[in-house]
Design a protein that fits this description.
With about 425 residues, the protein is α/β, with parallel strands linked by helices. The chain has two domains: about 5-100 and about 315-430, 3-Layer(aba) Sandwich (Rossmann fold); about 100-315, FAD/NAD(P)-binding domain, CATH 3.50.50. Helices cover about 30% and strands about 20% of the residues. The chain has helices at about 10-25, 40-45, 50-55, 60-65, 85-90, 120-125, 150-160, 175-180, 205-210, 235-250, 345-350, 360-375, 380-390, 400-410, 425-430, and strands at about 5-10, 30-35, 70-75, 95, 100-105, 145, 185-190, 215-220, 260-265, 270-275, 280-290, 295-305, 305-310, 315, 325, 330, 335-340, 340-345. Helix 1 crosses helix 4 (about 60-65), helix 1 (about 10-25) packs across helix 12 (about 360-375) and helix 14 (about 400-410) packs across helix 15. The chain binds flavin-adenine dinucleotide.
Length: about 425
């Protein structure tokens, strides 16, 4: 008998799982359940709008979605429209591929002031994710502080300082483009508690910061060591050497004609957000690195700013109906097996680390486990879910519906841009009506 599998979440880890299941030896029928009308998870809502080449991976996922045997339920939220317990009655196996939608908090006094936005919210806002369309951040400030030394921090800094011309061929949401263009931002501080060698930028992202039209990368050459020291794998050492070489070129960037600066600020950690109701600055403590860890020196300084964006990692939300490991922000699992026919893949399994491709082995593992654990299918699958959702009058979108939304976005694009994003669910569904 066919094994009926529900994959919850149409992000990379969900699609890699579907693909691995289809390539397996057993007869499977897979349904993807996605809470938004749009698929692709962080490919659409996280990856920077000026990194369109990266977003092209969605074409591979599209092929998977259109394969025989694959069903698609868009605009259906598990936990709101249907529960895990109900899905367990309908499907032989359920794969959680729901990602990590929230932020790791700074956890310092004042971090709840107006003007402090976690990276998940801020990135979601400029990428037109419907959950964050109404964030309405006040960008009427000359100085922004981004806490973090990874690619998300560098993405945010870059999107804030690029010129409208540099953003022409992007799908930056209209509301974000208007707000950023109108903002008087001149200085973006990107702050890391450790040094340039420990920073987690990948080299492509770092190099871009030295090639911006209107923004000078500012770095203190005294903080750049002659060579990469420390106990790194050969691969990591090579990556760090490349980053160090890139950073050493930053002081050579000619600032003439440039109106903005991005300050690479190392060896500093935020200790307090300053201001009244609204952020007016951040108090920082200088740090040094001991055994790879950052240690406060007891010396402090302040950066006045009107916007503070902690980009110190995403975090999973507890998922209704499955045990959650609050400390690590992942579901409780044994190498992906959650129990009772439930499996986990991607960021809800591993936490928010790695690149898109890092999610692929998770899909392979889940498919292998499902085939090991389930000899034969016994559950009704797709038609039972369709009936349940119809009874509840849930407006379910098919993959063809998403393709219609996609086509409407592409048709509405400004010259050079790949699409003009719809930024709320009603707008998306209106296309279909
Ligand atoms: C800001 C940012 C930029 C990035 N840039 C890059 C990059 O340039 N290159 C790169 O290789 N990697 C990048 N990554 C990493 C990459 O995006 C992740 O590795 C990948 O998206 C994780 O996949 P996932 O499937 O686990 O989660 P997600 O991509 O988050 O997908 C989860 C999906 O589940 C859905 N969902 C959640 N809850 C429910 C529910 N209750 N019911 C139904 N559906 C639900 C969500 O709507 C979403 O579509 C970036 C990440 C971030 C945060």
């Amino acid at each position: 008998m066919t094994i009926n599998v529900a994959v919850i979440g149409a992000g990379p880890s969900g699609f890699y799982t579907v693909d691995a299941l289809l390539k397996g030896e057993k007869d499977v029928r897979v349904d993807i359940i996605e809470r938004l009308p749009t698929p692709f998870g962080l490919i659409r809502g996280g990856v920077a709008p000026d990194h369109q080449t990266t977003k092209k991976v969605a074409r591979v996922y599209e092929k998977t979605a259109l394969t025989d045997g694959v069903g698609y339920f868009g605009n259906v939220e598990v936990g709101r429209d249907v529960t895990i317990a109900e899905l367990q009655e309908i499907y032989d196996a359920i794969v959680l591929a729901v990602g990590a939608p929230t932020d790791r908090k700074l956890g310092i006094p004042g971090d709840d002031k107006i003007g402090v936005y976690g990276s998940a919210d801020f990135v979601g806002w400029y990428n037109g994710h419907p959950d964050f369309t109404d964030l309405d951040p006040d960008l009427n400030t000359q100085t922004v502080v981004v806490i973090g030394n990874g690619n998300v921090a560098v993405d945010i800094a870059r999107v804030l300082v690029k010129t409208p011309e540099e953003m022409t061929e992007t799908d930056l949401a209209d509301h974000a483009a208007d707000t950023i263009d109108a903002s008087p931002i001149k200085d973006v501080y990107m702050v890391g508690r450790r040094g340039p060698i420990e920073a987690k930028f990948t080299n492509v992202e770092l190099r871009e910061m030295g090639k911006l039209e209107d923004c000078q990368p500012v770095i203190d050459p005294a903080q750049l060591p002659d060579e990469v020291e420390g106990d790194w794998s050969d691969r990591d050492r090579r990556l760090k050497e490349r980053n160090l070489a890139t950073m050493k070129e930053f002081p050579d960037v000619d600032p003439s004609g440039m109106s903005k600066r991005c300050h690479f600020t190392f060896y500093a950690k935020p200790v307090e957000v300053l201001g009244g109701d609204k952020v007016e600055g951040v108090r920082m403590e200088h740090t040094r690195v001991e055994d790879g860890r950052s240690v406060g020196t007891g010396e402090f300084f302040e950066i006045p700013c009107g916007l503070l964006i902690p980009a110190i990692g995403y975090f999973s939300a507890p998922f209704p109906g499955v045990p959650f490991d609050v400390d690590n922000g992942v579901v409780v699992h044994d190498d992906g097996r959650v129990g009772d026919g439930v499996y986990a893949v991607g960021w809800i399994k591993r936490g928010p680390t790695g690149v898109i491709g890092t999610n692929k082995p998770d899909g392979d593992t889940a498919a292998t486990q499902i085939f090991e654990d389930i000899e034969d299918g016994t559950k009704p699958g797709r038609e039972a879910l369709e009936t349940l959702l119809e009874e509840r009058s849930v407006r379910t979108l098919s993959y063809a519906d998403w393709q219609a939304i996609d086509a409407a976005e592409v048709a509405a694009a400004k010259p050079g841009a790949p699409r003009r994003k719809f930024v709320n669910v009603d707008e998306m569904i209106a296309v279909l009506d």
